[in-house]
Amino acid sequence: RGYVVEDMECSHYMKNFHAPHVPLRMQSSKKLLSHINKTFGTLAFCRRWLEREDGGSQTINGDRGKQEKYMGALKNLCDVGIVQAYPPLCDAKGCYTAQYEHTIVMKPTCKEVVSRGDDY
């Protein structure tokens, strides 16, 4: 207990902000990277969003964003360093570890937590 390891199947990813320019040979990788750039940029995303009809954003994609058979392309993007995988963190085998964050605004005389709401 108290020692966290990356374990289990990965479902969360994020495009590397300083992604190297790598010539992609797989057409499916090019298509998925284009979708990631357009829909998420360098924000984190999960595979579940790629499988939705809107591909993760109704505003950007409408109902035409769903990614089909993308796992090979996603693995390729991770292998070449364009996308970073973020596997679940586990403390004890089979248990999950939660992480909570807040957004704060630093003012000259105080700090304000802007992400704290009724649902926290």
From TrEMBL:
It comes from the Eukaryota. One of its GO terms (biological process) is proteolysis. The keyword Lyase does not apply. One of its GO terms (cellular component) is cytoplasm. InterPro entries: Creatinase/aminopeptidase-like, Met_Aminopeptidase_Type2, WH-like_DNA-bd_sf, WH_DNA-bd_sf. GO terms for molecular function: aminopeptidase activity; metalloexopeptidase activity. Coiled coil: none annotated. Keywords: Aminopeptidase, Hydrolase, Protease. This is Methionine aminopeptidase. It comes from Thalassionema nitzschioides.
